């Protein structure tokens, strides 16, 4: 099975070296140690969540805000809005720059959705994180350095796919986000050894592709 990657598009990335306290507080920053912000918007929310986690592995920054936008990037509020706003915070601009650089590398070379059908009408995210950073480990209730399969698909495809993933490998469902999420997809965090997470992600992707091929088969 070969899936065609759908590369994420970073729509905006900016840094605020000395953010105003009111803005810092509004995004949940810790004023005792956060002074600088890095902000990014992108047309793929789940790829950006992975990239935000990657930022925490390369710099002592915190992800203080990350939210998907309702109905996805096709219904964005503006040209630069995309599907998500992510905000990282650090004690100085250099830390934020390091975090943003790691985030952008991840979006360019690692995390992305894939087309699961010939027409490109079904997108799937069967991503495996071999070693979690501080952000997603906390979100998933796991330890830093644990492996995790991050699985996303549209509602029907997801339901069939996550069932297949859980049956295919020794993995544990840490969180399942049933539809509809903000973008009308569904998602799951599955934990286990890296090889088990990879097997689960592969089974998930295969099931999503199969649903697309035969949607009316019972």
Descriptive keywords:
Alpha-Beta Plaits, 10 strands, 4-stranded antiparallel sheet, 6-stranded antiparallel sheet, alpha+beta, 218 residues
Structure commentary:
By secondary structure, this protein is of the alpha+beta class. It has two domains: 8-111, BMC (bacterial microcompartment) domain (Alpha-Beta Plaits, 2-Layer Sandwich); 116-213, BMC (bacterial microcompartment) domain (Alpha-Beta Plaits, 2-Layer Sandwich), CATH 3.30.70. The chain is built from six helices and ten strands. It has helices at 21-26, 45-58, 93-109, 134-140, 155-168, 194-213, and strands at residues 4-6, 10-16, 36-42, 62-68, 84-90, 113-115, 123-129, 148-153, 172-177, 186-191. It has a six-stranded antiparallel beta sheet, sandwiched between helices. A four-stranded antiparallel beta sheet has the order 2-3-5-4, with helices on one face. A hairpin with a 7-residue loop joins strand 6 and strand 7. The longest helix has 20 residues, at 194-213. The mean pLDDT is 97.
Biggest sheet statistics = 6 strands, antiparallel
- The low-confidence runs, each spanning 5 or more residues with pLDDT under 50, are none
* Global morphology: globular
**What is the level 1 CATH name of the largest domain?**
Alpha Beta
Give the CATH architecture of the largest domain: 2-Layer Sandwich
Rg, please? Answer: 17 Å
**Averaged pLDDT:** 97
Strand tally = 10
| Helix coverage percent | 25-40%
| Number of separate structural domains | 2
Overall SS class: alpha+beta
N-end to C-end Cα span: 22 Å
Provide the β-strand percentage band: 25-35%
The ordered H/E elements are EEHEHEEHEEHEHEEH
Looking at CATH, which topology of the largest domain would you report?
Alpha-Beta Plaits
Tally of helical segments: 6
Strand order of the largest sheet: 1-6-7-8-10-9
The CATH homologous superfamily of the largest domain is termed BMC (bacterial microcompartment) domain
């Amino acid at each position: 099975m070969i899936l065609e990657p759908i590369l994420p598009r970073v729509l905006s990335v900016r840094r605020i070296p000395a953010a105003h306290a009111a803005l810092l507080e509004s995004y949940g920053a810790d004023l005792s140690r956060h002074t600088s912000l890095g902000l990014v918007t992108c047309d793929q929310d789940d790829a950006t969540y992975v990239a935000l986690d990657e930022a925490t592995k390369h710099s002592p920054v915190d992800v203080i805000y990350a939210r998907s936008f309702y109905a996805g990037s096709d219904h964005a509020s503006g040209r630069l809005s995309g599907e998500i706003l992510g905000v990282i915070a650090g004690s100085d601009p250099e830390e934020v720059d390091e975090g943003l650089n790691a985030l952008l590398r991840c979006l360019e070379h690692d995390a992305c959705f894939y087309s699961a059908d010939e027409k490109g009408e079904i997108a799937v995210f069967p991503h495996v994180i071999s070693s979690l950073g501080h952000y997603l480990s906390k979100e998933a209730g796991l330890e830093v350095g644990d492996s995790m399969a991050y699985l996303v698909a549209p509602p029907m495809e997801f339901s069939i796919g996550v069932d297949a993933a859980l049956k295919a490998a020794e993995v544990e469902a840490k969180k399942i986000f049933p539809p509809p999420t903000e973008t009308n997809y569904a998602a799951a965090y599955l934990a286990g050894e890296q090889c088990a997470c990879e097997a689960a992600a592969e089974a998930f992707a295969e099931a999503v592709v199969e649903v697309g091929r035969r949607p009316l088969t019972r």
